[in-house]
Amino acid sequence: MKDNTKLTVAGRPHQRPAHPVNTPVERASTYLFPTYDDYLEGAKTITYGRLGTPTHRALEEAVTALEGGFETRLAPSGLQACTAALLAFVAAGDHVLMTDTAYDPTRKFCDRFLKRFGVETTFYDPLAGEEEIAALMRPNTKVIFAESPGSLTFEVQDLPALARAAHAGAAKLIVDNTWGAGYFCKPIALGADVSLQAATKYLVGHADALVGTLTSADEQTAQKIFYALLQLGSNVSADDAYLALRGMRTLSARLERHQENANEIIKWLRKQDAVERILHPAQKGFPGHNVWKRDLTGASGLFGVVLKPTPMPALKAFFNAFKLFGIGFSWGGYESLVLHVKPEQYRSATEWSEAGPVIRFHAGLEDIEDLKIDLERAFMALAAAQK
Ligand SMILES: *Cc1c(COP(=O)(O)O)cnc(C)c1O
Q1: Are the C-beta atoms of residues 291 and 310 closer than 8 Å to each other?
Q2: Where is this region: Disordered (predicted)?
Q3: Is it the case that residue 63 has pLDDT exceeding 80?
């Protein structure tokens, strides 16, 4: 089956003779087993709310269908998917290789939390080749943590090369696949051991719930992920699991439209004098563009723009002129967003040397003509403030 079809059939209820089309919310902590034998049998699937209800199982099934791999487990946020995945594979004395363009809270988890427990992290250039990565590997390197494309600056990483480097040693390759949403990018097919997502973004798709997903390539990896989440006491509410699964039903239609609107906006932005550079993997000559073309099947709606150096009052006028693009964190919902981001503050192995401000856009599902009017308004305000 193709993804468009999988997204509509995976995780659907199976009861007979009649059942609702979509999986309903089942809220429960305690489950009652009619007999002792039922308790022995039931314990193999549904036992207790924290270990998941049929609503959670349905979402897990749908994400596995999309990402490929052996099994999916849920986390209460995208960030906890990142931290639990790291905790599943490291112990005191171990070493982690992490991309310099990882989502900042993921970086800080290594720099602050893991460090206190005797786990050392080395950050690597997201554009490093296989040999450079191999040179950074140590006998105690247990995880290579990639995020592709990278947060804020969108460099695309060579996942098959990272997988080879990891598997030549004793390491697992964990990939934060939030941008590709499991739809445009399939890290497990490219060699990753774990593909995780902030489902908060495109799977939920409506900016109204936080969920993380962790998909493992094989049973042994899946067991480690399961125990990490279990021992951390992770729990996702059945309501939030339901929202993520409901969001997934329209994922392909939404992503195609996010992509289309992003491409149109970029075409428009390229003609603006105030724009220095577009940060988006589908742009020819962009770092990792060829890898993007080889490994991904499309591009989502999140991208960046470097403006020419801009004084703060002009930048404020620019942001305040938007009426449709909202100033807000996160992305992946149906709505357009714009944010001033500062990549120079969040890297250590590489240097961000662009002089002008970096503006991150999320292209929502609004009509493209209305979005262009909004952009026009902001760029006119920017120009007027610099006169
Ligand atoms: C948002 C985000 C996260 C964290 O997700 P939350 O659900 O907000 O915790 C992790 N990784 C990436 C790439 C993200 O964009």
Answers
A1: no
A2: 1-24
A3: yes
Residue of minimum CA distance from atom 8 in ligand 1: 78
Supply the range of the domain harboring residue 372: 251-385
CA of 284 to the centre of ligand 1 (A): 27
Mean pLDDT, rounded, for 335-361? 97
Q: Examine the domain organization and report whether 210 and 287 are in the same domain.
A: no
Helices vs. strands in the chain: H and E counts, helices first: 14, 12
Work out which ligand 1 atom sits closest to the CA atom of 212. 7
- Asked if residue 42 has pLDDT above 80, the reply is no
d(CA 323, CA 108): 34
Domain final residue pick, 248, 282, 304? 248
Task: Look up 176 and say whether it is catalytic.
Answer: yes
Q: Catalytic: which of 6, 50, 308, 316?
A: 50
Specify the CATH number for the domain of residue 361: 3.90.1150.10
Verify whether ligand 1 is closer than 6 Å to residue 181 (CB atom).
no
Residue 279 shares a structural domain with residue 243? no
Mean pLDDT of 332-356: 97
- The rounded distance, in Å, linking the Cα atoms of 287 and 39 is 55
Same domain for 59 and 10? Answer: yes
Can you tell me the distance from the alpha carbon of 231 to that of 234, in angstroms, rounded to the nearest whole number? 8
Calpha distance 385→387 (Å, rounded): 6
pTM metric for this prediction: 0.97
Q: How big is the chain by its Cα radius of gyration, in Å? A: 22
Are residues 41 and 79 both part of a single domain?
A: yes
If one counts the domains in the chain, the total is 2
